[in-house]
């Protein structure tokens, strides 16, 4: 329910508007002047304020300016007894949504409030949808790439658990795509029309993480100059990914446990308890069971988050997906750069498939992006890859498979190789030609022919 505050020095007007708005289903608070209203604004998040312009002490204009600083997302509607006063026009210039003249029609004010709140909701949804559209274009979370049997089993599991409200723990090495899986769960669930929110628990210090999760009120700590919703409130009705939950401090683990148990949060500096309806998804690249044994992670929290566990296999365990993913990223980056690159050179493919990819899918994505940026032909050549990928695969200058920079005559090179192997076979066979021919899988006649041709003894 949206929260509305009525500010008027006339008690009869405050009572009338409060009763009318409560009947409409809104949560209503009231203040007799701008000074009292400031205190309420500091203590809770208000969606809409209806304020009289003319009030003792702090008037409506001063209150509007204060709200714009402290709670810029709050909508303000002004009430004035004068239809064309300069103060009403000034209020609009300062950011008021609209003004109503006394005496007013109940239906009129009801419609203005509904339109104002609808506009606020649409604005918030548009901001959210723009961010999501950017993520869809960049990450393609609706099409997780992979045909490996482990990935196919993962898809089936997502289909089974997505429609439920079950808490999910996603385990996997860094770069395997844990957030991608979390998004897939959200967007295949009944919560898909609500927000998906994520935060990395290890990327923020404890105090900052707490303020981000639960929100805060003005003055809750140094630098808190305005009210702010926490991410649990932002994700209300949707899904919340707590990434790298194993990095969370013990005190934060206790506070998270309460949210999981009671679905209640309290903003920093506030007393009001707020109910939230959020599906919790957690992820980690650590062994939480081991952390529990080492007393670094709460056992009760572990059982709360580990209701349904999903393990994402590292890329080295699904090598048949490497080229599939590489081509997927190639299509994305060629589109972004406008280059006409048709695919990968055969040797490049071999290097990609034989590399262990310690950074998993994220590392592969970065490698393809780099290769596309450097490539000047219509194929990704091996030299466009980072040296670490092919360093151990390149033959040394002493190897028969080494290709000098200046090139070679292949037929002469093959003859020299044949000579070396035949001489080595003769040495192993103690000079016995039949035995040497058998070591090389050659017929005795063929072996004797090349012995004479090459002048071997």
Provide the fold topology.
Blueprint: E1 3-7, H1 11-23, E2 27-31, H2 34-43, E3 48-52, H3 60-70, E4 75-80, H4 86-93, E5 98-101, H5 106-139, H6 149-161, E6 168-171, H7 178-187, E7 196-200, H8 206-214, E8 215-216, E9 228-229, H9 231-234, E10 239-243, H10 250-262, E11 264-266, E12 273-275, E13 279-284, H11 288-293, H12 299-305, E14 308-311, H13 322-337, E15 343-344, H14 346-354, H15 360-374, E16 379-380, H16 387-390, H17 410-428, H18 433-439, H19 444-454
Helix pairs in contact: 2-3, 13-15, 17-18, 18-19
Instruction: Strand order, main sheet: write it out.
Output: 2-1-3-4-5
**Record field, number of beta strands:** 16
CATH homologous superfamily caption of the largest domain: P-loop containing nucleotide triphosphate hydrolases
- Rg from C-alpha positions? 34 Å
**Structural class by secondary-structure content:** alpha/beta
CATH architecture annotation name of the largest domain: 3-Layer(aba) Sandwich
CATH names the topology of the largest domain as Rossmann fold
Kindly give the count of domains.
4
Percentage of residues in helical conformation:
40-55%
Number of helices: 19
- What is the averaged pLDDT score? 87
Describe the structure.
The chain is an alpha/beta fold. The chain has 4 domains: 3-119, 3-Layer(aba) Sandwich (Rossmann fold), CATH 3.40.50; 149-313, P-loop containing nucleotide triphosphate hydrolases (Rossmann fold), CATH 3.40.50.300; 316-393, Helicase, Ruva Protein, domain 3 (Orthogonal Bundle); 410-454. Helix content is 48%, strand content 14%. The strands form 5 sheets. Strands 2-1-3-4-5 form a 5-stranded parallel beta sheet, with helices on both faces. Strands 7-10-13-6-14 form a 5-stranded parallel beta sheet. The chain is elongated and about 120 Å long.
